[in-house]
Automatic annotation (TrEMBL):
Keywords in alphabetical order: NADP, Oxidoreductase
The name this protein goes by in its record: Aldo/keto reductase
Gene3D superfamilies, A to Z: NADP-dependent oxidoreductase domain
Keyword Oxidoreductase on entry: yes
All copies of domain NADP-dependent oxidoreductase, residue ranges: 17-258
SUPFAM superfamilies: NAD(P)-linked oxidoreductase (SSF51430)
Keyword Hydrolase: no
Coiled coil ranges: none
Family note: Belongs to the aldo/keto reductase family.
Length: 272
């Protein structure tokens, strides 16, 4: 898909949240070998070094150039100064062993709109070509409206918790209106949705797994996503979602599961 600055982004990425640093290299390498081109990490995951090592090994094993990959990391901390933001970015790049990032996100808005300096620093990183696109994560409508009052560069992406139990329709509509791509995190609700009866029935109908049905539900709606698995068979299955589609009846049944139910923190109250 194309972002609002015409950069291409893979629809489906491999997330590495909750993977210990020492295990990450092998998993990222396996992801790349098995066709993943987007890797999603973050400063707070503590595994940027492992991710970097995995990228190096994955590129070596596949003979791909760096440009074929799309690497995302995220800035931790609220009320960071301009300088601290630049420093954190450099530390992430160094740990990843890269000389540019594809996407850099402000990880959480915090509760006091304290991201203005960080956004300015990210805009300057973008202008300097250190990162191909910049964006936010876990931002609600009011967080973005505040950012619009001073931003010179608009976010390309808002990465948010999104799955059939938390469909985020109103926020998605707002993002679409402002030409910001929605990217889902915890698309499988961290595995908690996989034995849902409605999803199981649709899976049987298509001869697919519950996970594949959920990921297809995202893709049908133009939602970008990052899914995590440490297991090669699951990595492969999670990517194998481009040879079928859901019909209107399936989509209505899946849409009806929305309960505004979160598996992660609520951005309105989460502070760090
Ligand atoms: N921006 C943010 O604030 C934020 C927050 C959370 C996550 N994220 C990003 O989003 C990514 C994905 O979210 P997530 O890791 O929280 O959850 P997720 O991708 O919804 O679910 C991952 C869980 O589902 C299991 N799983 C994966 N594929 C499966 C399959 N085909 N069949 C059965 N089980 C399967 C995994 O187990 P195994 O690993 O054992 O296979 C793991 O326990 C993260 O890794 C991270 O990159 C961002």
């Amino acid at each position: 898909m194309k972002l609002n600055n015409h950069i291409n982004i893979p629809e489906l990425g491999l997330g590495v949240f909750q993977i210990p640093n020492e295990e990450t290299a092998e998993i990222v390498k396996n992801g790349i070998i098995n066709g993943y081109r987007l890797i999603d990490t973050a400063q707070i995951y503590g595994n940027e070094e492992g991710t970097g090592q995995g990228i190096k090994e994955g590129l070596h094993a596949t003979n791909l150039p760096r440009e074929e990959l799309f690497i995302t990391s995220k800035l931790w901390g609220s009320n960071l100064s301009y300088e601290e933001t630049l420093q954190n970015f450099e530390t992430s790049l160094e740990k990843l062993g890269l000389d540019y990032l594809d996407l850099y996100l402000i990880h959480w808005p915090g509760t006091d709109y304290g991201y203005q300096e960080s956004w300015k620093a990210m805009e300057d990183l973008y202008k300097a070509g250190r990162v191909k696109a910049i964006g936010v994560s876990n931002f609600q409508k009011h967080h973005l409206e505040r950012l619009f009052t001073y931003a010179q560069t608009l976010p390309a992406v808002n990465q948010i918790e999104l799955h059939p139990k938390l469909a985020q329709k109103s926020l998605r509509h707002f993002l679409e209106k402002h030409n910001i791509k929605t990217q889902a995190w915890s698309p499988l609700m961290q595995g908690k949705l996989l034995d849902n009866e409605v999803i199981q029935k649709i899976a049987q109908k298509h001869n697919k797994s519950a996970a594949q049905i959920i990921l297809r539900w995202h893709l049908e709606q133009g939602i970008l996503l990052n899914v995590k698995s440490v297991k090669v068979e699951r990595m492969r299955a999670n990517r194998d979602v481009f040879d079928f589609s859901l019909d209107q009846e399936d989509m209505l049944l899946l849409d009806a599961l929305d309960e505004n139910l979160r598996v992660g923190p609520d951005p309105e109250t989460f502070n760090f």
